[in-house]
Amino acid sequence: MIISSHVFSELMNVLGKKLGHRIAVEAGQRIVSNPDYLIVESEEELKEALERVARQPSSVSFTDCIVMAFADRFGTRAIFGFDEVFRKNG
Questions:
Q1: 3 near 36, Cβ under 8 Å?
Q2: How far apart are CA 19 and CA 55, in angstroms?
Q3: What is d(CA 83, CA 81) in angstroms, rounded to the nearest whole number?
Q4: How many whole angstroms separate alpha carbon 30 and alpha carbon 20?
Q5: What are phi and psi of 57, to 5 degrees?
Q6: How many structural domains compose the chain?
Q7: Tens-place pLDDT, residues 32-55
Q8: Which domain holds residue 56?
Q9: pTM, full prediction
């Protein structure tokens, strides 16, 4: 599974706020030590994500746009997410 570095950061923030730092750190350590997960820097997607978010309704987050730009970079339509915005944007 390929994970954008921005999405990993958001995951750590959400887990820390919702479940506490201990659980967030444990989850983060499991992800970074598992060879099935690849965390990739996604700086080159920032410009594309900014352009995307400008065209989206306010309910669509910048992180959602990072995910869409990242999926385009890797040529995949498979996104693990719960937001309807991914289906609407192809």
A1: no
A2: 33
A3: 6
A4: 16
A5: -65, 160
A6: 1
A7: 999 999 998 877 788 989 998 999
A8: 2-88
A9: 0.72
